[in-house]
Write a structure and sequence with these properties.
single chain; mainly beta; 4-stranded antiparallel beta sheet; 5 helices
Amino acid sequence: MTFKIKLLSTLGLGALLAFLCWPSPIQPEGWAPPLAPSMSGVLQPNHALASAERLGLGRIQAAEDVLADEKGRLYITDHDKVLRLAPDAKPKPAIETLAQTGGQNLGLAWLNSKTLAVANQPLGLFTVNIENGQTTHLETPGIHYANAITVDTDGQTLYFSESSDRYYGETWKYLYDLLEAKPHGNLWAYHIKTGKLTRLLSGLYYANGVALSPQKDYLLVNETYRYQIRRYWLKGPKAGRNEIFAENLPGFPDGLSLDPKTGNYLAAMYTVRNPAIDTLHHYPFLKSQMAKLPRFMWPQPKHYGMVLVLNPDGQIVDSLQDPGGEIFAISSARKIGAQLYLGSLHGGFAGRLNWDASKLAAHP
């Protein structure tokens, strides 16, 4: 018995040493995140999102982004597909596959009334004609993780985020960027007439949602893994410069959009802050070892719905939430007319709710 115990101890120690010596897929840096903000004031938990309709539930897998056309039809990116959904068809909304591109379709934007611009990883950019589904692959050499996209109102310039120029391909590799805590993201402009690419910003910590200001003088881009939003000036005395627009957010900002009625911005929060991740960031060695483990052993995101409303000064002026987590993994939030549309990357649905009713639920 003593011999068996010693043998097992030796084997266990050998396995541990082998694990520690096995190369890690990442080379992480340490980071000391700021203390998460208190969930009080405008961040006081509410149930504004809890009543959202979950459109296409069970028939949609990964609704990263949602747009609506003039007829009220919804366009949804879902893995390698662009779906079209007629949300008012009863009893079950009709869903059709408008286009299929390969890769993973993420952000959507209207290039014009008949054409969608689509950001894809690892394939770059596409356009899709909504009348016939014709798909065109735009040449973006070297771009492997186009994520969010917006269009200048002249229809000649696409602005898009490249989340990472290091980790892409498999849809879970964004988690390596989280653990590594290095700035692999970029912000780009694509000029449609010439096909020219211009890098506006580099060194971003997982560049994600983008939004263009009403005056078209600056862009906002989410840095998901720094809990912040950065502003890049396109025009004026600060042209070419950038600054922090909002920082120390209460979660991981994913999608970003402009509310055209108020001039405020909507930041879709994928989930709230994770104390285990914030603590882990202090210890690069532990992060390098965790990256070797199966992903189910990593800290898991909490199911918590949240959309932040920020004014043009970057201040959080409101929040819509679902602490119960029926609405979760929110990857986009867009206010279109009287409706708020939500993308959910892992929820298996596209969300829709009346904006006024949601505001009432947030502030009864």
